[in-house]
């Protein structure tokens, strides 16, 4: 059983929120009483996800946002504050995976695209969230890295570069903002049952049996297990936790 949290009166932003880890985390924030802003580039899926939360009686706002476009991110944060008056928590989750590639053959445009979303996108989100939190003197941010931010794997150079970069952003900003009442941490998910992972398996880019064998817990992770880690990192229960890159990977990086 997961612990329960009381986030009534607080406001959370989740990017990449229309499905997978993002949606489950947004739902968990809402069920804990927070007003939630769901941000995603997929407008159709975003509308469905937001409508589902509002129909269940939660305070939820859907904002189409392309995290690779800084002005789009700034507009999303402005909409959050204009609608709910503040910003207390953020899960910067939006990200993409790219097909495996020999490092000598990887096209520059692939490297640029994955880093524009996975790294620059997190940077832009964190920047504009911090602008608001700095005014308040409080807040908690969780950036989504990956086990790929902690280790290397053949064929994944561009993706792992982006996820290593997220940890560098996190630790540096965490040191800068901890004295100002704002905690910044990262999570490093292992292989989680999400639409993105399902798509990778269907395309032959990921072998299910191998993925399960590589996680000592002998199964894939669940999106609700990621949500539980994010909510804890945003809660008073982690009040002395600053600048960590928390593996949530079934033991993959403990080997």
UniProtKB/TrEMBL annotation:
It comes from the Bacteria. Keywords: NAD, Oxidoreductase. Residues 10-190 form the Ketoreductase domain. It holds the Pfam family adh_short_C2. Belongs to the short-chain dehydrogenases/reductases (SDR) family. This is SDR family oxidoreductase. It comes from Microbacterium pumilum.
